[in-house]
Amino acid sequence: MNLFPEYLLMNGRAVAVKRFYKGENQIKQEAELAGFLKDWYSDKPFITVQTSGSTGPPRHIKLEKKFIAQSAFRTIQYFNLHQNDRILLCLPIKFIAGKLMVIRALVGNLDITSVAPSTDFSFLQNEKFRFAAMIPHQVLKLLDTEPHPGSWMNNIDQLLIGGSAIPTTLENRLQEISTACYSSYAMTETATHIALRKINGPEADAYYHCLNDISVLKSENGCLEISMPGLKNQTLVTTDLAEVIDEKTFRIIGRSDNVIISGGIKYLPEILEKKLEPFIRQPFLFTSLPHTSLGQQLVLVIENNEGSLNEAHYFKICQAHLDKYELPRQIKIIDKIPITSTGKPDRKAIF
What's the count of helices (H) and strands (E) in the chain, helices before strands? Predict the structure, then answer.
């Protein structure tokens, strides 16, 4: 496996890598790509990447280039990608998911097309791709923009969706799409995904399945532990609460650092949110506030800057779809739910 080929196949033509990253007057997307390629082709055995910040402030970590290339190769194998296959990069290159698309193109000699993450995807009317990766927001944008379900998306053979949890409503819409869609379980520390879950089609599954050479188990506190070649400490203990079927099969039920203990009862916000997803169209989440006798109280926060609906409306939805002890003690409607730099809800920044 050649980590540093002389040429990168881009938009159907071979581009000399060093000449490309030394060039000038490039558009923003090309400039970011050039900057990353310069870093990748440097003499350093590692690159520095930024974590997502979903469990705390974003931090910078070093990942060995060989470790990253192995991750890229696993993806190439899993999706059966071959030389000259077209792949679409529409993720920010400054984060690990965007970087891995570039590395997959390099080590697999794949034909990469790079577009701005804010694209409306209208170019898919006339373009076809073997593989692409998106966050849920981009998938929703594509589905809402295309004239008919799948009329544009079906020009992508295989789609990897990650970055945040996939709403149930989105999964339901993807059942009408012929594109093979996969949810990824990933983190920066593992150089993107270590496991995949098929979302649609006859092989759709509720569980993630680990890629080659990767296994998992459950820690004493119920969190997922990952074992894979190249990890400095052999295993990586996550903060994700998991149901583990075997060393290759699992599902995520929530995050340990999101657990709310109210009146001695533990609540997982992710489970409560899943119950309400089909009935609340606006972005929302569960969090907590201090309570004199309960310790913490459940709070439902809803983003609604239109002002057309009030707390009473949402409380009726909660009464209809949550158990008695799951009902929020407060419902707060705010203009905008804060998000992290990677687009994930920032629960800790709300209050």
Answer: 8, 20
Do residues 187 and 272 share a domain? no
Summarize pLDDT for 283-333 with one digit per residue, the tens: 999 999 999 889 999 999 999 867 777 899 999 999 999 999 999 999 999
Encoded tokens for 53: 């910040």
pLDDT in tens, 211-229: 999 999 999 999 999 999 9
Instruction: Look up tokens 């119920």; give the residue.
Output: 222
**What are the backbone dihedrals phi and psi of residue 152, each rounded to the nearest 5 degrees, phi first?**
-105, -45
In whole angstroms, give the CA distance from residue 234 to residue 69: 18
Domain limits at 92? 7-255
Examine residue 2 and state whether it is found in any structural domain, yes or no: no
Kindly state the helix (H) or strand (E) to which residue 152 belongs, with its residue range: none
Tokens coding 118 = 């804010």
Q: Are the beta carbons of 39 and 50 closer than 8 angstroms?
A: no
The DSSP call for residue 339 is B
Sign of CA dihedral 174, 141, 143, 321: positive
The last residue of one of the domains, among 203, 229, 255, is 255
**Contact status, residue 90 vs residue 119, Cβ threshold 8 Å:** yes
Triad 290, 284, 338: Cα angle to 5°? 75
The CATH number of whichever domain residue 292 belongs to comes to 3.30.300.30
Are the beta carbons of 46 and 62 closer than 8 angstroms?
yes
- 3 state DSSP class of 224: strand
